[in-house]
UniProtKB/TrEMBL annotation:
This is Uncharacterized protein. InterPro entries: ARM-like, ARM-type_fold, FYVE-type_Zinc_Finger, Znf_FYVE, Znf_FYVE-rel, Znf_FYVE_PHD, Znf_RING/FYVE/PHD. It comes from Owenia fusiformis. One of its GO terms (molecular function) is metal ion binding. Coiled coil: none annotated.
Length: 468
């Protein structure tokens, strides 16, 4: 039996993954050898595990060199070299292990034709759960990863197809990651042109990046470079999956600097995609930028500067009327974050009007309205924006201040308090027409604010005093 006790399940099948003698990451190794299985004791075996026939003086016991189990001569008849286990001479292999062992042995050949035959066979095996079990238990996984070091395009196609199939089984992810799968996928993506190879490769990376643990591993293993490159691929399907993958990667704040300061002009390329005629591409690119805008103030300034340089794509989105409301939601979220940058207020002036006009035209989307009023409240913090915002006071009151939604109500309150501070007379005049009552009621609903106001007042007057 194998020495590995880390049994995992794939679609109800128990799998005991093969282990390597030495570092688990076979992609980074010039060569590798599998750890030999511990042989099952003869006394523990009364029947052949494959044919269920009892052992006797005629039906003798034999050990499979691959799995270590005890079988009869009929079920453990084949002999072949097993270089992956360090056996140069032909050794016994059972009928269960034989098909994959033959492929792994061929894949270790110095002849390209045999390597291709091995890789092709392994890629076909992993298309069903029974085949996955055989490939993972007999070292086929490590063999595929190791072969990814090859430069042959046909070989890459077989390998990436197999790795994509294996990546779809979540329970295999830890084994795949520690064996160097992500490095292999990144290497293939960086050196391939064939459309199907690119689709399988970027789809595999997207699967890995959906896991918070593997996302970090993917970044460490070099996923950022091929993903950024494919974001601008001529095939829309490939570019969209790359964008979605990048959107998952940027959820990890540690990647923001690498993207924004990339020498590959990653930021301008992503901003250019906000003008795509494909609304799904727009949605994903804006979501990605919204994630990036959560970083440092310098990052926000870079986004604003690059957007200005590349044609004010964000403004164009805010002025559009897409069928996909999520495009506007992501754009408003992005602008709301950018609006917190003091040094970018001048460059963002033009987005304020279309942003305010959204409050009355998209009342059906609470998500959009929440992002919009948050962005407006952030703009209201700066005195230079007051003159643009005051004409929309009635919009803030009707859409947000009178809302039963606390998030909308509180963001509107933030906005109006900023405006009262910067343009007291104009704001007061506007509130007297509509909104004063709602503002006061809203203030009362924030106990911490009322307490803070009382404390501030008491710094100027006393609750108790001596007679005059």
């Amino acid at each position: 039996m194998s020495q590995n006790n880390n049994i995992i399940k794939v679609e109800g099948r128990e799998i005991n993954p093969a282990k390597v003698d030495g570092p688990s990451d076979v992609f980074s190794s010039a060569s590798f050898q599998l750890a030999k299985s511990r042989w099952q004791e003869d006394n523990d075996a009364n029947i052949c595990v494959l044919c269920n026939q009892k052992f006797n003086q005629i039906r003798r016991k034999h050990h499979c060199r691959q799995c270590g189990r005890v079988l009869c001569s009929k079920c453990c008849y084949a002999k072949m070299p097993l270089p992956q286990l360090g056996y140069g001479d032909a050794e016994r292999v059972c009928d269960f292990c034989k098909p994959v062992c033959e492929l792994v042995t061929k894949a270790r050949s110095p002849m390209l034709s045999y390597e291709l035959e091995g890789a092709k066979g392994l890629s076909e095996f992993v298309r069903d759960p029974d085949g996955v079990k055989r490939v993972v238990e007999t070292g086929g996984l490590q063999t595929l990863i190791w072969l990814a070091r090859q430069g042959d395009e046909q070989m890459r196609g077989y390998i990436i197809s197999a790795l994509h199939c294996l990546a779809m089984h979540t329970s295999l992810h830890p084994v795949l990651a520690e064996s160097g799968t992500i490095k292999a996928v990144c290497s293939i993506l960086s050196n391939a042109d064939a459309e199907q190879i690119l689709i399988d490769g970027i789809s595999s990376l997207m699967i890995f990046c959906k896991s918070s643990d593997l996302k970090t591993q993917a970044i460490k293993d070099g996923a950022l470079h091929p993903v950024l490159t494919l974001c601008n691929h001529s095939q829309d399907a490939i570019a969209l999956v790359a964008l979605k993958t990048l959107s998952l990667i940027v959820e990890h704040a540690g990647t923001h600097t690498a993207i924004i300061e990339s020498e590959r002009s990653a930021l301008p390329k992503v901003l250019a995609l906000t003008a795509s005629s494909d609304e799904q591409v727009q949605e994903v690119s804006l979501k990605l930028l919204a994630h990036l805008s959560m970083g440092t103030d310098y990052h926000r300034q870079r986004i604003v500067q690059e957007d200005f340089t590349t044609g004010k794509g964000i403004l164009k989105v805010l002025r559009s009327n897409p069928n996909n409301i999520q495009v506007l939601c992501n754009a408003a979220c992005l602008v709301g974050n950018l609006a917190t940058s003091e040094h970018s207020q001048g460059a963002l002036q033009e987005v304020i009007d279309p942003l305010c006009l959204m409050l009355g035209s998209h009342t059906e989307s609470v998500e959009l309205t929440t992002h919009v009023i948050r962005a407006i409240a952030n703009f209201a913090k700066y005195p230079q924006n007051a003159w643009r915002l005051i004409p929309y006071l009635a919009h803030f009151t009707r859409s947000c201040l009178k809302s039963a939604n606390n998030a909308l109500k509180f963001q509107a309150t933030r906005c109006i308090l900023h405006l009262l501070l910067h343009s007291t007379n104009e704001t007061t005049e506007g509130l007297m027409k509509e909104g004063a009552a709602e503002l006061l009621k809203g203030l009362v609903e924030i106990p911490e604010l009322m307490e803070s106001m009382h404390k501030s007042i008491l710094k100027n007057v006393s609750e108790r005093c001596r007679p005059m």
